[in-house]
Design a protein that fits this description.
The structure is a homodimer. By secondary structure, chain A is an all-alpha fold. Helix content of chain A is 65%, strand content 0%. Chain A is built from eleven helices and no strands. The two termini of chain A are 41 Å apart. Chains A and B meet through helix 6, helix 7, helix 8, helix 9 and helix 10 of A and helix 6, helix 7, helix 8, helix 9 and helix 10 of B. Chain A binds a DNA duplex through helix 3.
Amino acid sequence: MNIGTTFHLCQDAVMAPKKTSTPRREDSLTRDRIIEAAIELLDSTGEGGLTFRSLSERLATGPGALYWHVANKDDLVNAACDAIVARTLADGAGGATPGDSIRELALALFDAIDRHPWVGSALAAAHGQLPMVRILERIGRQVRALGVPEEAQWATVSVLLNYILGVGGQNAANGQFARTHGIDRDAFLAALSSRWLALDPEEFAFTRSFADRLPAHDDRADFLAGIDVILDGIASAHAR
Amino acid sequence: MNIGTTFHLCQDAVMAPKKTSTPRREDSLTRDRIIEAAIELLDSTGEGGLTFRSLSERLATGPGALYWHVANKDDLVNAACDAIVARTLADGAGGATPGDSIRELALALFDAIDRHPWVGSALAAAHGQLPMVRILERIGRQVRALGVPEEAQWATVSVLLNYILGVGGQNAANGQFARTHGIDRDAFLAALSSRWLALDPEEFAFTRSFADRLPAHDDRADFLAGIDVILDGIASAHAR
DNA sequence: ACCTGAACACCGTTCAAGT
DNA sequence: ACCTGAACACCGTTCAAGT
């Protein structure tokens, strides 16, 4: 899945081409080129913006041509997700301790999903697929390095992975909502806050008590705090 | 965004007559009736099986009629999800300790998503909506009861919630995959296991080492083990 | 007020026909 | 082998027209 091919998009070519000249591709279609274009489309137009028609238009071809290189839409989205995940994991230099490595890995994934919200949904949809296995493997190695006994390793990896996926899914939903409603993060949190304040004071006492702190809170810091809670739990369960 | 309307569920009150004056005919369309039919359709045919056409057919009406009671498909799915979540939370008797209550709550949600896999996806898609707020509130109260200091409560609730949502999302994906491919859980895990065994032995050493244990493992027990790890982490961070 | 059902603007996917 | 683009079988949603 090495995607180094460069290709340029002429979306700023305002002048409409002559009726006689159809936009021509410069080089042939490739699975990698298709995936790269899909990533750009997903990033710029959101989950709903990726369409075989819009994608084929961007690649100056017909919808049917894509099916020669890609099995179907699930395959396409999964491959796009895997490209992002593989790049994200490739960047990690590794921390001083296994715990640091896990923190670094988790933050890298958090940031990647923040930049590409659709990755959060794609990860949730594709259990056991390559992108998830990559993450599983990385976490597993660090959990082993942490000294967790063999029989508890799977459950331990599972907590970390599912927590990361859970946060990722929520971030994806936030990003998607903000996009389709044309508002930014601050406006989204402000709206959420006032919606929570409108809830029944008795039935939702806890939720309401946090409503006004919502707009100011730091997603990333909270996410990391969650990772630390889990790491603490692991340490206390397998203290040596 | 009008999902705050209170509606009561009479799932077991099969023969409760309406004492109040009911100008509507007995079989007239109702938001509740629509939501109930949507739940049945989602349960029996999966996420892709819910269609305004299939639903209207089941209710012996036209697709357009549904829009009088329901804003759009998101609204419909969210309301269906909320009905399941509300029922699930209503069953909880509460545990002996806050920790037990959290365990009980988490297991109840796990089982509900197991029975209705689409609820996992619906929860992931609707951040801050009523169904998620219900869960948030319940967890929040128990976290308070656990003695977690004020400033750490939000992050603590967040770990538990996101972990539950993460597992729920994965279970939803599993259920969806098994349904669309017409296989059961055992066949799914067996296929996953052999797929993992086909991975590169060096690059995926950890994953492969767990591939043969995959078919026999207990999702529910692993889920609960994860909850316990988080509860341990919370306890060790705020030891009194 | 509530319901009908045709119509609109899409979608993923297929496939005979081309090169 | 790879690509084309029309065609198929769907969607969610709207809306004039009915009761």
